[in-house]
Amino acid sequence: MTEKLSISLVTPAYNSVETIERTIQSVLGQNYPNLEYIIIDGNSNDGTADIIRQYESQLSYWVSEPDTGMYDALIKGFSHSTGEIMGWINSDDKHTAWTLKVANRIFQEFPEIEWITSVNPAIWNAEGHIVDVMKLPGFNKESFLRGENSSASLFRIEQIQQESTFWRRSLWERAGSKMDTSLKLAGDFELWARFFQYAELIGVKNVIAGIYLHTNQMTNRFLEKRIAEEKQVIAQYGGHLHTSWSAYLRKHIAPLVPDKLAAKIGLKYPTKFVSYNDAENKWELETSYF
Asked: Is pLDDT of 126 > 90?
């Protein structure tokens, strides 16, 4: 398989001088031949733009100007993109050496798949080393709308990590080609809710990328605000959070019930994922329950 799908990747940035070069290098260092890499800086005053400028010959587009926040920056970035596959990586996260190659191959081999995310997102330390890998059971629309991918839920699995998520442009267009800029912390969460209205999210059993944990992350500093916005999104799309009783059933009773029966009575959810078959050198699509 020699063809490489065009991939558009956007990095929104603001005062990211300590982390953005590592992010840029993790993207460009993959040497993916059909990459459209765009960086939108919100008029940083700490030297971030100077770092970006060092790489401008390898960027499809970049700008440093005032914006109204990360989601406004993403709209700007995606408006300059043309790739068949889309995604974004924040200025304090990092790809692996194989991220884009894996995304390309999965979308090539499974034309029916419209968006993917890793069920094994990594955690990087300050030195840029992987120190942990999450092991997530999968994703499902109904589970999402019960808040299981939200910090608001009494039964929580994990957030859908944006740096490990890719989608087809056709899905982006069907979902409105937009980010909700009225949200300041959960615009990604709202986009996932919108995507779920049109397509299943397929998990990838591979470390695609990872988050860099540090105490200054906006999610850590404004957690209560993000939770409030996530609750708003869940209600907007017709979902409802777990009660204490339903959370207890999911945690303690669901593991005891056979998968298909549990799914029938709402204790488990079906999920699809792709895993790599090394013996046959191909990715395989499977269904499980969680």
From this structure: no
For the four alpha carbons of 54, 73, 14 and 227, in that order, the dihedral sign comes to negative
Report the C-alpha gap between 39 and 49 in whole angstroms: 10
Residue type, 282: K
Residue 85: name the closest of 224, 213, 238, 208 by CA.
Answer: 208
- Taking the CB of residue 47, how many other CB atoms lie within 10 A of it? 13
Query: Quick one: tokens of 140?
Result: 């499902």
Q: Are 233 and 225 in contact (CB under 8 A)?
A: no
pLDDT tens by residue, 153-186: 999 999 999 999 999 999 999 999 999 999 999 9
Query: pLDDT, tens digit, for every residue of 39-95?
Result: 999 999 999 999 999 999 999 999 999 999 999 999 999 999 999 999 999 999 999
Q: What is the DSSP string of 4-15?
A: ---EEEEEEESS
Contact 142, 269 (CB under 8 A): yes
- Dist CA 113 CA 34 (whole Å): 20
Domains along the sequence of the chain with CATH: 7-289 (3.90.550.10)
Taking the whole predicted model, whether its pTM rises above 0.85 is answered as yes
CB 147, CB 241: distance < 8 Å: yes
Residue 217 has pLDDT above 90, yes or no: no
